[in-house]
Amino acid sequence: MEMPKPNPKILARKAEFLAQLANILPPDAIISDPFETRAYECDALTAYKCPPLAAVLPSSTAEVADVLRLCHRMGVPVVPRGAGTSLAGGALPTADSVILGVARMNEVLETDYDNRFVRVQTGRTNLSVTRAVEEHGFFYAPDPSSQLACAIAGNIAMNSGGAHCLKYGVTTNNLMGVTMVLMDGTVAELGGAHLDAGGLDLLGVVCGSEGQLGVVTEATLRILHKPEGARPVLIGFDSNEVAGHCVSDIIKAGVLPVAIEFMDRPCIRATEAFAGAGYPDCEALLIVEVEGSEDEIDVQLGKISEIARTHNPVELRQSNSADESARIWLGRKSAFGAMGQINDYMCLDGTIPVSQLPYVLRRIGEMSAEFGLGVGNVFHAGDGNMHPLILFDANKPGDLEKCEAFGAEILKLCVEVGGCLTGEHGVGVEKRDLMSHQYAPEDLDIQMAIKDVFDPKWLLNPAKVFPLAASEPRRIAAE
Amino acid sequence: MSGAANFRKDAVLRPESETDLAEAIASANSPLRIEGGGTRPVGRCAGKLLTTSGIAGITLYEPGALTMVAKAGTPLAEIAAALDAENQQLAFEPMDHRPLLGTDGTPTIGGVFAANVSGPRRIQCGAARDFLLGVRFVDGQGRILSNGGRVMKNVTGYDLVKLMAGNRGTLGVLSEVSFKVLPQPEATATVMLEGLDLRDAVKAMSAALGSPFDVAGAAHVQNKTVLRVEGFVASVTYRAQALSEKLGKFGAAKTLTNAEENTSLWQSVRDVTALGTYPAVWRLSLKPGDTESLFLKLRRLHDGFLGKTILDWGGGLVWLAADREMLMDMSMQAGPNDHCEPDMGVRVGHMNLQELAQDLGGHATLIKAPEEVWPHVNAFQPEPPPLAALSDGIRQKFDPRGVLNRGLMGGM
Ligand SMILES: Cc1cc2nc3c(=O)[nH]c(=O)nc-3n(C[C@H](O)[C@@H](O)[C@H](O)COP(=O)(O)OP(=O)(O)OC[C@H]3O[C@@H](n4cnc5c(N)ncnc54)[C@H](O)[C@@H]3O)c2cc1C
Ligand SMILES: Cc1cc2nc3c(=O)[nH]c(=O)nc-3n(C[C@H](O)[C@H](O)[C@H](O)COP(=O)(O)OP(=O)(O)OC[C@H]3O[C@@H](n4cnc5c(N)ncnc54)[C@H](O)[C@@H]3O)c2cc1C
């Protein structure tokens, strides 16, 4: 992965920079020991690593502003960091950058059940937001699988999704406001406890901007009352194509499930061997979950089963109890772990129009044979967000490169059929150079123009999102 | 310049393709005023009229994928008819501004998204901006640009789709939009409470929205507090009953199940039809709980506001209207030297309401006013300095020559 050359002038001024930091932060908030900074050398995309110049862990918005003002003055790049679970290398440092971690800012600032929002510091983990409101029966809807670890900060930066987003939307649909510090130290309040922007929807642009426009320190999040209950149905088919049609028919029928998950045969076999959930040995499997009171659930599952039967399923198993629900979900939830048992894997995240599902799955199968690497598919079928897991052997020379090439081909295919490179993980460094397959030069240019406005010196989260060649003129001009 | 001669009819620019649109904007040497159907003239700006009505037609509709792609000038009616044939709908329920503003013309899908127009269901399923998946547009330099796509989940690059939703033609002219649609519900019921004051109405709506019963509309219109549930028949019956019980402490609730009655009730909420006769109308977005202190302060401005207030979005959306008499009263507050006229009353009211909204952390927009007022006011809430600087910066990048709806949303 090509990264910009570290700026020797900054490296040379490290001691001076640290001395200045010591004036604005307590000693335990500054990490500069080369051994300790290794903890920040990568995120969950561990293939790429680089220890930063230093890492800082401020405890307040004011401290964040002080740090950014200093970095702005000295021209030091800043990489914001939440919990470091990005799968796209979004929090990968450069050697001349400082990691700004918000992990110590994890307070709940306000809970308001009448007005249905919670205001938190962004270092708080996703799941602990729900934990803070669940005793009143409420929850925060976006639920990435990493929710135990990942922070709201990273969720906002990546506009993360989750299993339930078919019904409840992704982060941007549940984010009402933020406190954000711009690179020059200016503190800006965007949105709040009211709905929609009075002027331009700047909040909408900040969400999903991968830490390149500002450091988000506080967030106002929409919370909802939990449904009375939820139960799934498991449906097996002897072809991907038929499963795809079934998904489409369920959606058309007006049932709005909270989740429609899809697994293909390689994935089903792997999870059966690993978790023994009792899945049928078939070509494709759907797990469809609905919510409501017991009766409402029965009615909806009845409708779904009725639709499924018109597609001659090889298996149709409706859950009638919490126990049966857990059994149905067991295999799906252990799918990643199961694939990991077989080999190392790379998880892709492209989205496709639902109608293209059968074609894309067939092409992935063909490419799998061409590249000689196995692949399993487990994904959110309702919204077309694919997660092909490509198996490779990290210890075998050349396998990683082959896997990356295969991955790139799959993502290009997603774009070709009318989809996109990433549905929820973000571009980061991982898909940066594929951006020109999705966007024309002027489309990238107008996106970079936004960064020019928020961060004219191009210091925030360097070398992410845009191909280096595309951003080079701007980075040079900013210096 | 291929089609220039064709679309230049009198003083109106009416491009018939995206390429023509790009040429028209690139060659504009004075400001343009962008119009879809001309039905939502909120705020005013000067310039030669450019209408998108020539760039029309549904490009793609996949009911099974819940997505549609249409050219920006496509009449809303055409979209609604196509969706209706598949039992689907624009779930964010865009308001029809014609009854309120007394405008005619054909609302366009581009205008809906350019103004981020959302109705009562916004609190349950999101705003227009949440349904917009992708855009093609022409910026102030005449560049044809695109962002987003036609899939539900997309985090590839910056989300300029959200920025274009609600830009009101000040950053670019939309040429094509792709958006998510949803099934029409099988049944609808409305639980109705009568005679609550504004304060209790907000409390009742909060209780309903904080329940597990998936309320898809919570409004207070003319003494009636109405709560909508939608879905399959059995489920709707069950939830309407459960909701009535939950709201027991606010009085005995009636349940409306007749389909036509429900449709017309929620249409009148959506279009604030009851305010159509008033010369001045404002729209405030606030934290629902702040409506109480708004009403207290409003009383000082003019207590006439209270009787006409319509609340939507559980109290988070406040519609205020003033009649001629109120405007005359308010104009007095401008001081003895000023003309005592309705226009001055609107200006006084507008200044006060925007101040109130700002104090409460929300925003107020002047939606309807006598024509003479517009040159003197900014219809949209001024942004605080750091945001105003960012918005101006963005406008500079998208429209450096200031040719698109210049000054409509303040700034530059
Ligand atoms: C009686 C009457 C008098 C008027 N007088 C004036 C006047 O004096 N001065 C004046 O400036 N205007 C005036 N207008 C309004 C003018 O026609 C439009 O310019 C106005 O801004 C809204 O357009 P619209 O309602 O058709 O757009 P809608 O289609 O309803 O859209 C609403 C908003 O979105 C914008 N928009 C629409 N389509 C697009 C698109 N494809 N891409 C980007 N943005 C889009 C519009 O500019 C507008 O801001 C008047 C309208 C009427 C009915
Ligand atoms: C096992 C596993 C499962 C996952 N499942 C899902 C899933 O289901 N859905 C999904 O969407 N993602 C998933 N992810 C990806 C990842 O968890 C999300 O992208 C998450 O939102 C990252 O949060 P984080 O706090 O760890 O951010 P980090 O990894 O620390 O950072 C991510 C990005 O956010 C920026 N950032 C961090 N803090 C700030 C801040 N304060 N201000 C501005 N920018 C900031 C960083 O610069 C970086 O670009 C998964 C990851 C793993 C490892």
From TrEMBL, chain A:
Matching PROSITE patterns: FAD_PCMH (PS51387)
Gene3D superfamilies given in the database record: 3.30.465.10, 3.30.70.2740, Vanillyl-alcohol Oxidase, Chain A, domain 4
GO molecular-function terms, A-Z: FAD binding; oxidoreductase activity
InterPro entries per the UniProt record, alphabetical: FAD-bd_oxidored_4_C (IPR004113), FAD-bd_PCMH (IPR016166), FAD-bd_PCMH-like_sf (IPR036318), FAD-bd_PCMH_sub2 (IPR016169), FAD-linked_Oxase-like_C (IPR016164), FAD-linked_OxidoTrans_Type4 (IPR051914), Oxid_FAD_bind_N (IPR006094), Vanillyl_alc_oxidase_C-sub2 (IPR016171)
Domain FAD-binding PCMH-type: 48-226
EC annotation from Swiss-Prot or TrEMBL: 1.-.-.-
Cofactors, names only: FAD
Keywords: FAD, Flavoprotein, Oxidoreductase
Enzyme class, broadest EC rank: oxidoreductase
Pfam family, one: FAD_binding_4
Protein name: Putative FAD-linked oxidoreductase
Upper classification of the organism: Bacteria, Pseudomonadati, Pseudomonadota, Alphaproteobacteria, Rhodobacterales
TrEMBL record, chain B:
Alphabetically ordered keywords of this record: FAD, Flavoprotein, Oxidoreductase
Pfam family, one: FAD_binding_4
InterPro entries in the record: FAD-bd_PCMH, FAD-bd_PCMH-like_sf, FAD-bd_PCMH_sub2, FAD-linked_Oxase-like_C, Oxid_FAD_bind_N
Coiled coil: none
GO molecular function list: FAD binding; oxidoreductase activity
Domain FAD-binding PCMH-type: 5-184
Enzymatic class: oxidoreductase
EC number: 1.-.-.-
Domain of life according to the entry: Bacteria
UniProt protein name: Putative FAD-linked oxidoreductase
Native organism: Roseovarius albus
